[in-house]
UniProtKB/TrEMBL annotation:
Transmembrane segments: none annotated. It comes from Acuticoccus sediminis. Gene3D superfamilies: RutC-like. InterPro entries: RutC-like_sf (IPR035959), YjgF/YER057c/UK114 (IPR006175). Residues 1-23 form the signal peptide. One of its GO terms (molecular function) is deaminase activity. This is Translation initiation inhibitor. It holds the Pfam family Ribonuc_L-PSP. Keywords: Signal. Belongs to the RutC family.
Length: 160
């Protein structure tokens, strides 16, 4: 390796190290993916985050029926489903998106027969008859804390 090549490599490393450290400290990846922690939401309980922003899109992790103020599950099936959608809506709103800006949602339920009608009812109320986003609903064997529903979403939220 020539002295010039070595000098260029060292210079690049010296420039990249502070930028990488800055990106990690600010919850932003080197490519600009921002980890979101909206005020008023519950903290993640493990190796995950509530949401990220990549360009004009917001990706929201699976939200369950957790009441942020108490960090406990909402009481009752309908309340729990509504809370899961409300949590997703709150995070989307923190980035300037509305439910109508949902590009796609995925709903996980532990009993399709019992909970899909509730999901449909809550979604109809929250979207207020406006066009619904593409949705996939999947029955799963079990969710964390034996919850009944989890909903995740992708939202279009152009940066200003």
């Amino acid at each position: 390796m020539s002295k010039t090549t070595l000098a260029v490599a060292i210079s690049a490393a010296l420039i990249a190290a502070p930028l990488t450290a800055l990106a990690q400290a600010s919850n932003t990846s080197p490519n600009g993916v921002v980890t979101l922690s909206p005020e008023g939401m519950f903290p993640p309980t493990g190796t995950w985050n509530l949401a990220t922003r990549a360009g004009d899109f917001v990706y929201i992790a699976g939200m369950r029926g957790i009441v942020p103020e108490t960090n406990t599950l909402a009481e009752g099936n309908e309340a729990r489903v509504r809370q899961a959608f409300t949590n997703m809506q709150t995070i989307a709103a923190s980035e300037g998106a509305t439910l109508q800006d949902a590009v796609r949602i995925v709903v996980y339920v532990t009993d399709m027969y019992r909970y899909r009608p509730i999901v449909n009812k809550i979604q109809e109320e929250m979207w207020a008859g406006r066009p619904y986003p593409p949705r996939t609903i999947i029955e799963v064997d079990r969710l964390n804390q034996d919850d009944i529903v989890e909903v995740e979403g992708t939202f279009y939220a152009p940066k200003n």
